[in-house]
Amino acid sequence: MYFPKKKINMGLLNKILNIFNLNNSVINYSPYSFSKIDIWERCPYRFKLKYIDKVKTSFEPNLALLKGSFLHHCIEYSTEGKEYQTNEVFTEEEKKKAIEILTKFTKSELYKLYLSANGKHEVKFGILKENNIYKADSFDNINSIFKGKIDYVFQRDDELYIVDWKSGKYTEENEQKFDQLLLYAIWGFLKYPKIDTINCSFVYMEHLKENMNSFHRKDLKHYIQTYIQYINKIESDQLFEKIESDQCEYCEYKKFDYCNEKVKIREDIEVDLNTLNEKQLFNLMKLGEIDAITYYGYSQELKNK
């Protein structure tokens, strides 16, 4: 039986063929971080400009970023009994508001709960893969697959706590995503082999609220695979399409007219179904690209070979 060529959406093709496999391929865009992956998820074209084309801009951070940086440093210094002196461009009114937020937070139960633990601030890390084994490593190792920086880490009893300070608006608990903290938890399990539970929190300083999620060592392989899947998607991307959203106004490339061209539409290409294996064809059927009759006919043909 011979099956003709069929036009297939190129965006689906990478998922179907799994053309990139981390186990046997060179990783082109490592090291990865949560922010790097997040940029690709929001707009692959921005990822391309930033990490592949390495386009530099003179983009200046907005007030929200400046406020966040200021508050992060103030918390670190406050635990050492010091006052943080900033060189960032703040008006007196803006600085006053930020200090009011900090003062209110340092008097809260959340502050006492976490900062009394005498943990480590600004923990930089790398995750390395050697001989198919993942291990915690130095941030400076150029061979690391993943890199990151954690705001605050401490151990209490037999559990590890990882905290990310938030200075913006509060995200409701049922809408909070923990992908960022998942990467930090992976590092935690690799760094501390005797820790079985890691509690990760987003702490919203201005709102005196936190959203927490607990991760468990028994699920570590699944956690790692989640991030490997992110890499697979990015490494196999051949289009790096633009995605327009309300986030575009904050993009450094939008402000400098890199995105004025017409948004590219996914193209269809011809795929010879006879070159696919049964699993790949099954994926096509699930995605509605071929019908069940075609799949089962092809499946039967493979069994008879």
The assigned structural class equals alpha+beta
How does the overall form come out from the CA principal axes? globular
Q: Name the poorly predicted regions.
A: 1-21, 262-268
Helix content: 25-40%
* Major sheet strand order: 3-2-4-5-6-7
Percent of residues in beta strands: 15-25%
Order of helices and strands: EHHHHHHEEEEHEEHEHH
Number of strands: 8
- Gyration radius, rounded: 24 Å
N- to C-terminal distance: 11 Å
| Mean of all residue-level pLDDT scores | 81
Q: Number of DSSP helices?
A: 10
Largest sheet: 6 strands, mixed
Task: Produce a short descriptive summary.
This protein has 305 residues and is an alpha+beta fold.
Q: Which SSEs are present, and which pair or pack?
A:
Blueprint: E1 5-9, H1 10-17, H2 34-42, H3 44-52, H4 63-78, H5 92-106, H6 109-115, E2 120-130, E3 133-137, E4 146-156, E5 159-166, H7 179-191, E6 197-204, E7 209-216, H8 220-235, E8 268-272, H9 278-286, H10 292-304
Parallel strand pairs: 5-6
Antiparallel strand pairs: 1-8, 2-3, 2-4, 4-5, 6-7
